[in-house]
Amino acid sequence: MERCRMKQGVDKTSRRARLEEQGWKKQTTYDEPRLSELVRMYEEMGLQVRLEEPDKDDECTACFAGSAGKLKTIYTRERKARGARRKA
Length: 88
Known about the structure:
By secondary structure, this protein is an alpha+beta fold. Helices cover about 20% and strands about 20% of the residues. The chain has a three-stranded antiparallel sheet with strand order 1-3-2, with helices on both faces. The radius of gyration is 15 Å and the shape is flat. The protein starts with 14 loop residues before the first helix and ends in a 10-residue tail after the last strand.
């Protein structure tokens, strides 16, 4: 079996880099039924959850074959406290 070759580093103009600048942290990429289980788990931990299409520039693409539209990348970040002010 051929090993996946991940790109070293992240292009700072990539969607992933923009999400990270907004405080999102990439967790993993899955499809159903595990995807829903993981989303529930992160939400139960009090995290915000965001699902994105896998970034083919950022990840190994071997798993994408035959999985178009099924795989989602899970991003999480801490929930912002209500009434919290942004620091200037």
